[in-house]
Amino acid sequence: MQTDIKKLPQSQVSISITVEAEEYQKYLDAAARHIQEHIEIKGFRKGHASLPDVIKQVGMMPIYEQAIQRIIPAFFLQASKENNLETVGSPDVKVEKLAPGNPIVFTVTTALLPTVTLPDFEKIKVEKKTIEVAAEKVDAVLVDIQKGRAKEAVVDEVADKTHKVVVDMHMKKDGVPVEGGDAHDYGIYLDEDHYVPGMTAQLIGVKKGDTKEFHLKFPDDHYQKHLAGKEVDFNVTVKDVFKRELSPLDDEFAKSLGRESMEKLRELIHNNMYEETAQKEKQRYEVALLDALIAKTTFGDLPEVIVKAEKEKMIFELKRSLERAGIPLETYLADLKKTEEDLRAEWTSEAEKRAKAALFSRQFAKEQHIEVTPEEIEKEKNLIRENYKNEPPEGFEERLQDPGVTQSIATIVQNRKVMEEVKKRVSA
Predict the structure, then answer these.
(1) d(Cα 199, Cα 189) in Å, to the nearest integer?
(2) Topology of 151-245 in CATH?
(3) 190, 180, 284: which is closest to 222 by C-alpha?
(4) Distance CA 210, CA 96 (A)
């Protein structure tokens, strides 16, 4: 086999590969046997004709055309290994010469993983924040629990901040019903502020049977992106007004929750909040650390195929997020007045950042010989099984054993191991 490699822009190469007849003969033999087993040869039962009879019947070119399907990937892989080429994506293949008894010549154009030069870790500094849980935050959680366990009774009263109202609600935007904007028997606590800003203020003073219309602007950072920053019209009918009776926050209250005293209940809440805060700080620190590392790492030209793959992952993640919120992608895009291609174009910078993060992790793992064992992959799969133990989706186990899924799990575990090792090398 002979190869001629030419470097192209954007971390691409063109590889011209020449394979001599004696090198590809075994693939011809395998192709001839395959044809022998799958076609009818006059005078023979299927699969019983000799190879010369098969060649006489079909000619050599169909055998070459069958064999080339294996010749190209086999010799492309060999050429990549011999020349230390780390390719990525699907290559573009062009057969230049294909004639019986002669060398086969084909050209492969493919993207290469870009070079990655890791930074000096001693010069990377990322601040770690102190983890604290103020007593006031524990108090707030206790009050929320107290409200959640309140006794409620329907009353014939005008609603104020001490009440809960149950309503039927309909939302429209520009006169068109909002997807998922109808709510029936929806409870609203008038002393809480986690609803759309202004919602509770509009309901102060209502009573059972009242219907009220008003419009509110959703926050710019609202989790439902198709409503974020938008003016929405509300039509609300009050079905009931409830008075709430709150239990005192004492030891008896704590015992009703399985704790021996209020002190122990506060301790439990504090510990849980500390763990949650610590987890959020860990995530924030790791994102900040990765950003700092990427900024100081030197990358070769990013192939378009890598950036494009990241964009497709981002589209998939968006669809999953919208599905959980019950919002079709088409509705989301229509509200934004954008197409999927618009999003892909806007996401170029973020996709490049994600690609660089993956390349950094891969290079660090390679240099530090960080590998993932089958046992670690199986442990991760068991955690996934545990999360779905009650209602596993159809075909769950089959998908879990898919080679692509297994590779994705291995990458997740490797990235986790890389991050833990990196954190040991970076100054706070």
Answers:
(1) 10
(2) Chitinase A; domain 3 (3.10.50)
(3) 180
(4) 80
Residue 405 DSSP SS3: helix
Q: Spell out the residues 6+ positions from residue 367 whose beta carbon is closer than 8 angstroms to its own.
A: 118
pLDDT tens string 167-207: 999 999 999 998 888 999 999 999 888 899 999 999 999 99
Fold that domain 2-112 belongs to in CATH: Alpha-Beta Plaits (3.30.70)
pTM score, whole prediction: 0.69
Query: Residue 9: what pLDDT?
Result: 87
| Per-residue model confidence as pLDDT tens digits over 245-274 | 889 999 999 999 999 999 999 999 999 999
Same fold flag, 2-112 and 151-245 = no
How far is 228 from 220, CA to CA, in rounded Å? 5
Could you tell me the two tokens for 31?
A: 């192709």
Through-space distance between the first and last CA atoms of the chain, rounded to whole angstroms: 53
Residue 389 identity: K
Three-state secondary structure call for residue 96? strand
The domain ranges of the chain are 2-112, 151-245
